[in-house]
Structures are given as structure tokens and as C-alpha cells.
Give the backbone structure.
Amino acid sequence: MNILDYPDREMLAIDLANHLAGELEAALLTHETVTMAVPGGTTPGPVYDSLCAADVDWHRVIVLPTDERCVPQTDMRSNARLIGERLLVNRASAARFLPLYVEGAEPEDCLAEIEATLVPNLPISVLVLGMGADMHTASLFPGMPGLEAALDGDAPALAVARPQTQPEARITLTGPVLDGALSKHLIIYGEAKRAALERAISMPPEEAPIAAVLDGITIHWAE
């Protein structure tokens, strides 16, 4: 685990975007296509605003969310919507997007269909994660039903998450898929999340799911 401190969030966004572009370019030297998994939410938006203009061979890049709320893509809470509006524009509009939710379907009913498209494109080459103050990452929430199974080393690629703290079901990449990424990055802002991360380091993943992916990760922090 490596922690990079930045003087401000703008510098973090620019530097991380450059770093991600370089990793994609390096991966494309040895692979016909590469997979990048990224979070939704407001935190990574400025990173996407810079990364979308990078001179990368985007038509060989597959982009997918780390997790998705089971809502239509037109919904403001849709991760696919944010990724589409902030990342898959400019040069990055040439990338292929792999959604994690089939609109109108029960999440359990569409897992097999989504996994059939996802699994051939694993492992993830470049992974970007966020973390909540409760130490959740993707849609792996402390105490949620099925968390232990989703963190198990033999877990399938996807799991349905129904955390009691959230208003809708979600579909999430599981622990082994996230941790198996070739390059891992975590974005956190503020002292509260920095303190939460420091607590998570010594906690089991069942209590602090972010702990399942900290080995070899680069953490990007700004106030």
C-alpha cells in the first residue's frame, strides 16, 4: 500500500488522470484490449474530466463500473450515467462501456448474462475505487447480507448487494475481482476518510470491506 498526499483536490485529479492514462497505454502495449473499472459518485468526476481527453487508444479500452444501483441509466443515482457524462466523452467516447445492470430486470435474474460478458475481459487492468466513511467500497457494505460470500476467494465475479442502509439493490464486483486487478487506486478526500482508512488497515474485511483490496493499492488523498 502506497499513500500519495496532494496539496489540493485539483492537483490530485490531474495527477491521477495522467497516471491512469499512462497505465492504460502501458497495458495496451501487451494486450489487444484492456479493462478499466471505475466508481460512480461525485468524488471521481474531476479525474474523469481530465482523463477523457487523454491520448489513449480508447477503442481498445473496456470501461465498466465497480458497482451499479439497480435504477434506469437516466436516474441521477446511476453510476453508468455519471461515467457516461464525465468519462466517456471527448477522446474516451471511443471506449466500450460494459454495464452491470439490465434495466427492468431483477438483479439476481441478470447476473449470468452480465457475467458472460464480463468474465472474458478479466482481470481488470486498471481499477479505481472510492471509499465511504463506513469503509465500504464498490457496493460491499459492512454488515450487509451476503458480504462474506462476496469477499470469499472463490466468489463469482458479481454479487447482488442489498445493504439495509441504501434505498435500492445494487450489483457489485466481488472482492476477488477487485483485489485481482493488476493496478489498483483509491481516491479519498478529507481527514475523516483518512482516519477511517487507517482504522480499516487493522480490521477484517467483513467489518471494513476496503481492507480486502489494500494489498498493493495506491491511495490518493487530499483534504
